[in-house]
Amino acid sequence: MHNDCIIFSTSKKEKITLNDLSNTNLLLAESYCSYRNEINKHFSSSGIPLKSMIQINDGRTIIQFVQAGIGCSILPVAAIEPVPDRTVRRNLANTDFGLIIGIIRRNDQLDQSSERFYNELFCELKASRI
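^ thats the sequence. predicted structure below, dont judge the formating
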Protein backbone atom coordinates (compact mmCIF):
# COMPACT_ATOMS: atom_id res chain seq x y z
CA MET A 1 0.00 0.00 0.00
CA HIS A 2 1.50 3.32 -1.04
CA ASN A 3 -0.21 6.22 0.74
CA ASP A 4 2.51 8.78 1.26
CA CYS A 5 0.67 11.42 3.23
CA ILE A 6 -2.91 12.28 3.78
CA ILE A 7 -4.91 15.22 4.90
CA PHE A 8 -6.32 14.79 8.35
CA SER A 9 -9.22 17.10 8.89
CA THR A 10 -12.78 17.61 10.00
CA SER A 11 -13.56 18.84 6.47
CA LYS A 12 -16.54 17.39 4.56
CA LYS A 13 -14.85 18.07 1.22
CA GLU A 14 -13.78 14.83 -0.51
CA LYS A 15 -10.83 16.10 -2.56
CA ILE A 16 -8.49 18.53 -0.87
CA THR A 17 -5.68 20.40 -2.63
CA LEU A 18 -2.79 22.48 -1.33
CA ASN A 19 -4.66 25.56 -2.54
CA ASP A 20 -7.66 24.58 -0.37
CA LEU A 21 -5.34 24.56 2.63
CA SER A 22 -3.79 27.96 2.04
CA ASN A 23 -6.56 29.76 3.95
CA THR A 24 -7.09 27.17 6.68
CA ASN A 25 -5.50 26.92 10.08
CA LEU A 26 -2.88 24.27 9.33
CA LEU A 27 -1.45 22.31 12.26
CA LEU A 28 2.03 21.04 11.40
CA ALA A 29 4.90 19.27 13.12
CA GLU A 30 8.13 21.09 13.87
CA SER A 31 10.34 21.98 10.91
CA TYR A 32 12.86 19.20 11.63
CA CYS A 33 10.33 16.48 10.66
CA SER A 34 10.85 14.96 7.21
CA TYR A 35 7.19 15.15 6.20
CA ARG A 36 7.06 18.79 7.35
CA ASN A 37 9.98 19.55 5.03
CA GLU A 38 8.13 17.84 2.18
CA ILE A 39 5.00 19.86 2.95
CA ASN A 40 7.00 23.09 2.84
CA LYS A 41 8.62 22.09 -0.48
CA HIS A 42 5.24 21.34 -2.08
CA PHE A 43 3.68 24.61 -0.95
CA SER A 44 6.76 26.57 -2.05
CA SER A 45 7.09 24.91 -5.46
CA SER A 46 3.37 25.47 -6.09
CA GLY A 47 3.66 29.14 -5.15
CA ILE A 48 0.99 28.70 -2.49
CA PRO A 49 1.59 30.58 0.76
CA LEU A 50 0.95 29.05 4.17
CA LYS A 51 -1.15 31.87 5.63
CA SER A 52 -2.08 30.36 8.98
CA MET A 53 0.07 27.68 10.55
CA ILE A 54 0.63 26.41 14.09
CA GLN A 55 3.73 24.31 14.85
CA ILE A 56 3.18 21.49 17.33
CA ASN A 57 5.88 19.01 18.32
CA ASP A 58 3.63 16.12 19.34
CA GLY A 59 1.45 14.08 16.98
CA ARG A 60 -1.14 13.33 19.67
CA THR A 61 -1.51 17.04 20.37
CA ILE A 62 -2.01 17.71 16.66
CA ILE A 63 -4.81 15.10 16.64
CA GLN A 64 -6.42 16.65 19.73
CA PHE A 65 -6.34 20.11 18.11
CA VAL A 66 -8.00 18.69 14.97
CA GLN A 67 -10.63 16.98 17.13
CA ALA A 68 -11.30 20.30 18.87
CA GLY A 69 -11.87 21.99 15.50
CA ILE A 70 -8.83 24.27 15.72
CA GLY A 71 -7.57 23.30 12.27
CA CYS A 72 -6.48 20.45 10.03
CA SER A 73 -3.17 18.72 9.41
CA ILE A 74 -1.18 16.72 6.90
CA LEU A 75 0.20 13.60 8.56
CA PRO A 76 1.66 10.24 7.49
CA VAL A 77 -0.93 7.47 7.31
CA ALA A 78 0.79 5.55 10.11
CA ALA A 79 0.23 8.46 12.50
CA ILE A 80 -3.55 8.20 12.24
CA GLU A 81 -4.35 4.53 11.89
CA PRO A 82 -7.02 3.91 12.96
CA VAL A 83 -8.67 7.24 12.21
CA PRO A 84 -9.36 8.93 15.56
CA ASP A 85 -12.90 9.84 16.66
CA ARG A 86 -14.37 13.17 15.48
CA THR A 87 -12.02 13.35 12.49
CA VAL A 88 -12.02 12.30 8.85
CA ARG A 89 -9.20 11.27 6.58
CA ARG A 90 -8.88 12.68 3.09
CA ASN A 91 -6.26 12.13 0.40
CA LEU A 92 -4.33 15.19 -0.60
CA ALA A 93 -5.05 15.53 -4.33
CA ASN A 94 -2.29 15.88 -6.93
CA THR A 95 0.51 15.61 -4.38
CA ASP A 96 3.03 12.82 -3.86
CA PHE A 97 5.30 13.25 -0.86
CA GLY A 98 7.32 10.09 -1.51
CA LEU A 99 8.48 9.87 2.09
CA ILE A 100 11.21 7.44 3.03
CA ILE A 101 10.99 5.22 6.07
CA GLY A 102 13.67 3.21 7.79
CA ILE A 103 14.08 0.37 10.23
CA ILE A 104 16.13 0.56 13.38
CA ARG A 105 17.22 -2.31 15.56
CA ARG A 106 19.48 -3.10 18.48
CA ASN A 107 23.13 -3.30 17.58
CA ASP A 108 23.74 -6.58 19.45
CA GLN A 109 22.91 -10.02 18.10
CA LEU A 110 19.22 -10.92 18.00
CA ASP A 111 17.93 -14.38 18.78
CA GLN A 112 17.34 -16.56 15.72
CA SER A 113 13.56 -16.01 15.39
CA SER A 114 13.90 -12.22 15.85
CA GLU A 115 16.69 -12.08 13.29
CA ARG A 116 14.55 -14.04 10.80
CA PHE A 117 11.58 -11.69 11.41
CA TYR A 118 13.80 -8.61 10.97
CA ASN A 119 15.21 -9.94 7.70
CA GLU A 120 11.74 -10.78 6.34
CA LEU A 121 10.44 -7.34 7.29
CA PHE A 122 13.45 -5.64 5.75
CA CYS A 123 13.06 -7.59 2.49
CA GLU A 124 9.33 -6.85 2.34
CA LEU A 125 9.85 -3.12 2.86
CA LYS A 126 12.66 -3.03 0.33
CA ALA A 127 10.49 -4.84 -2.24
CA SER A 128 7.52 -2.51 -1.71
CA ARG A 129 9.70 0.62 -1.90
CA ILE A 130 7.64 2.40 0.72
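The chain has a mean pLDDT of 78.
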